[in-house]
């Protein structure tokens, strides 16, 4: 069996692709399934894609990506399955998917972990968003052999168009990368957040809470991201994200946070930050929104919060109590092993190719 993975990003550069595609590749190798990854963006364009300016270089990178997709059509005949992570092209209609499914008669597998059918305009994508075809997600679902959805909200959307839709959460390898549990008896407590430029604005939701906590407690607030956050905190420490140091950076945390606005877009989020925290024995304090409610059993592995008062009280509680952090950390790790690990969902992933 041969599988072609049609992916947006260069290998190893984006969390969504690393955890929903790349970490499954050894599982395919175990089954003697061969594969190839075909990224849309090349490394040079990826390096500038979310930086201001570079308009001409970005347009050139887009054109080259489209040309690579055209060339890819000539090789589709050699593959049994075409696995598309999110979309084949970042702008325009789903021409590649239509040709693959309707002309080349290939079995498409669509995988997504965001509410990509909804507009989500930010400063970084305001121009490109004018050329996105958000309605194409429904069409690609219809044309697909199977659909893999990262949470139940996404699954319910896809089921409207394709009954062969499975729930496949974003999982972690708890026997290799996420096997260690945080030792909570530290001299200073660190509250932490990990993410990218696209979700950095959500930290504004808890900025007043952290400022209030700073007046009463000594702690570090560590942000691991590709861009420094625009928040005013004395406790702030910024670490530039890299794949090589991701686990090491996370292990600095005693408490992990995941604030989210209560919006339809947020319901498409798959609680991945919280899962990363919990897998490493770090209690997660999250907004009571979408998949967070299921992923973070309240009071057992961390807390779900509705109000600023909730956030303050739960952060204060864990700041003061190392024993509780240890208890919830162990429970969180076990929860991820049982419900959100590679091993727990290996059979579901492999069922996509049957």
UniProtKB/TrEMBL annotation:
**One example GO MF annotation:** transferase activity
Tell me which UniProt keywords the record has, alphabetically.
Answer: Transferase
- Gene3D superfamilies, A to Z: Glycogen Phosphorylase B
Name this protein carries in UniProt: Glycosyltransferase family 4 protein
Name its species. Pontibacter fetidus
């Amino acid at each position: 069996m041969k599988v072609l993975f049609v992916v947006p990003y260069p290998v190893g550069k984006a969390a969504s692709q690393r955890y929903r595609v790349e970490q499954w590749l050894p599982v395919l190798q175990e089954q003697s399934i061969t594969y190839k990854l075909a990224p849309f963006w090349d490394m040079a364009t990826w390096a500038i894609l979310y930086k201001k300016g570079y308009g001409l270089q970005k347009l050139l990178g887009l054109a080259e990506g489209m040309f690579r997709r055209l060339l890819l059509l000539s090789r589709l005949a050699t593959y049994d399955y075409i696995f598309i992570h999110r979309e084949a092209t970042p702008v325009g209609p789903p021409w590649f998917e239509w040709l693959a499914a309707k002309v080349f008669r290939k079995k498409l597998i669509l995988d997504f972990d965001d509410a990509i059918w909804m507009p989500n305009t930010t400063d970084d994508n305001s121009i490109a968003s004018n050329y996105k075809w958000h309605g194409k997600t429904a069409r690609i679902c219809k044309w697909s052999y199977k659909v893999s959805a990262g949470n139940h909200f996404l699954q319910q959307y896809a089921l409207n168009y394709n009954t062969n839709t499975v729930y496949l959460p974003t999982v972690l390898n708890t026997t290799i990368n996420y096997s260690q549990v945080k030792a909570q008896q530290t001299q200073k407590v660190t509250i932490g957040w990990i993410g990218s430029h696209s979700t950095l604005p959500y930290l504004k939701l808890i900025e007043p809470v952290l400022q209030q906590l700073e007046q009463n407690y000594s702690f570090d607030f560590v942000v691991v991201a590709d861009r420094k956050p625009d928040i005013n905190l004395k406790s702030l420490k910024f670490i530039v994200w890299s794949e090589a140091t991701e686990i090491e950076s996370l292990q600095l945390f005693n408490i992990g946070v995941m604030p989210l606005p209560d919006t339809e877009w947020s319901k498409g989020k798959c609680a991945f930050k919280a899962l990363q925290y919990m897998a490493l024995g770090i209690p997660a304090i999250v907004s009571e929104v979408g998949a967070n409610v299921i992923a973070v059993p309240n009071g057992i592995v961390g807390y779900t919060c509705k109000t600023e008062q909730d956030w303050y009280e739960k952060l204060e509680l864990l700041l003061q109590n190392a024993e509780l952090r240890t208890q919830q950390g162990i429970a969180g790790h076990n929860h991820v092993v049982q419900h959100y690990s590679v091993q727990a969902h290996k059979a579901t992933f492999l069922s996509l190719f049957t």
